[in-house]
Structure formats: C-alpha cells, structure tokens
C-alpha cells in the first residue's frame, strides 16, 4: 500500500478537464513540495509538475498543480488521447525518512 | 537536458547481488544541486524509493532496504551504481535511476531496467 493516496483511475472525454488527487499527511505533503509524473509503459516517467505548481520547460499549460494542507491535485485541461497514461505524485516523508509516491492513477480519455 | 540510462544484467540468481549502473549525460554528476536516486517498480505495483547518493559520496537509503543496499558514485565516468544483496524473487522489478533536487523533488528519470530474480 502506497504512502500517498491516489484514485486508481479517472476518465473523461477528449477536450474535457480532469483532476487527480493525492492525499498524504503532515509528515509528507504537509511539509514538502509535491511533484507529479506521467508514465507510459516502457518509457521513463516524465516530470509534469514540481514544487507543487511549477511546470518544467516544454510542459504545456494544460497541466497544472496545486497543494492545500496535506493534499495535492493535478489538473489536466483540453484532454487528448495522448494524455492516456498513469500519473504519480511524489514527495519526501519525514517520518519514514524516505521518498514516497502515490499508487498511481490511470487516466483514460474516452 | 539531462538524460539517464540504466544498464546491467537482466537476470540474477536468488541469493546473489543485483548490480546496476546509471550513466548520466547532459549534466555533471558532481553538481551540488542534485541527488542521484534509485527507484523500483514491482510488476503491476507502485513505485518504491531505494535510496540516493550525493556527489560527495554521502548516501541515504530506504530503511526497509538499508541492510541490503549500497549506492556508489564515479564522478570521473559520470555514473552511479546500485548493489542489492541477497536478492529473492521479491526483488524482481523495473529499476529506475533518477536525478532529484533536495527533499526528493523534481525527478528526471531513466527508462528503467527490468531485473528478474530467478534460478
């Protein structure tokens, strides 16, 4: 069982918006920045969001991140079929003294 | 843009030591802003952080694996390596190397290497 809690799956139609939640505790999300990753099978997980809401160069502004207390959220607007992937949140946990992840959320664009 | 590539045997026998190397290009492994990590994903499961090494050689391991893990760095080759001892079938996973900032932020990952533990 993963330290951070994500919904196993979400789905939406092309062009629509979806949000993916990531829930944790004071010892992880409550005390550290959150990053989000997009993962397609057989490829390197790709950094989408870091420091809660910053986008690396080359990541479109369709992707956004936010954090409140011990929860974080990834938002994707203007969904495209190419967005179908598994999305992970990650951060550091003070109590475990370890990097931790959510269990991953599989996005289906119907 | 930093690129990372894992390499090493894809098959390891039980009780032996798993060894992987990560070759970094597009960035210096001696940069004091970054940490060099190993992460794994068991088949059909989530991600598990194994540990990291800093350019100085300082290491930090996941307490759950600490007794079996060793991470080393070779700044002359811009590489860092993982050794996991006394492996069992439960160590079968895709192993990723990744560069992060402090507190495990902003990770850039390699493509991953599947390691199967089997006799």
Q: Could you explain how this protein is built, in words?
A:
The complex is a heterodimer of chains A (110) and B (119). Chain A is an all-beta fold. Chain A contains no helices and 9 strands. Chain A has strands at residues 9-12, 18-23, 35-39, 46-49, 63-68, 71-76, 85-93, 98-101, 105-109. In chain A, strands 1, 3, 4, 7, 8 and 9 form a 6-stranded mixed beta sheet that branches. In chain A, strands 2-6-5 form a 3-stranded antiparallel beta sheet, with no helix packed on it. In chain A, a hairpin with a 6-residue loop joins strand 3 and strand 4. Chain A is globular. By secondary structure, chain B is mostly beta strands. Chain B is 0% helix and 54% strand. In chain B, the strands form 2 sheets. In chain B, strands 2, 4, 5, 6, 9, 10 and 11 form a 7-stranded mixed beta sheet that branches. In chain B, strands 1-3-8-7 form a 4-stranded antiparallel beta sheet, with no helix packed on it. Classes of the chains: A mainly beta (110), B mainly beta (119).
Q: What's the gyration radius of chain A in Å?
A: 13 Å
Q: What's the helix-strand series of chain B?
A: EEEEEEEEEEE
Mean pLDDT of chain B: 96
Helix content of chain B: under 10%
Overall body shape of chain B: globular
What is shown here, in short?
The complex is a heterodimer of chains A (110) and B (119). Chain A contains no helices and nine strands. With 110 residues, chain A is mainly beta.
Record the SSE blueprint:
The complex is a heterodimer of chains A (110) and B (119).
Chain A: E1 9-12, E2 18-23, E3 35-39, E4 46-49, E5 63-68, E6 71-76, E7 85-93, E8 98-101, E9 105-109
Parallel strand pairs in A: 1-9
Antiparallel strand pairs in A: 2-6, 3-4, 3-7, 5-6, 7-8, 7-9
Chain B: E1 3-7, E2 11-12, E3 18-25, E4 35-41, E5 47-54, E6 59-61, E7 69-74, E8 79-84, E9 93-101, E10 105-109, E11 113-117
Parallel strand pairs in B: 2-11
Antiparallel strand pairs in B: 1-3, 3-8, 4-5, 4-9, 5-6, 7-8, 9-10, 9-11
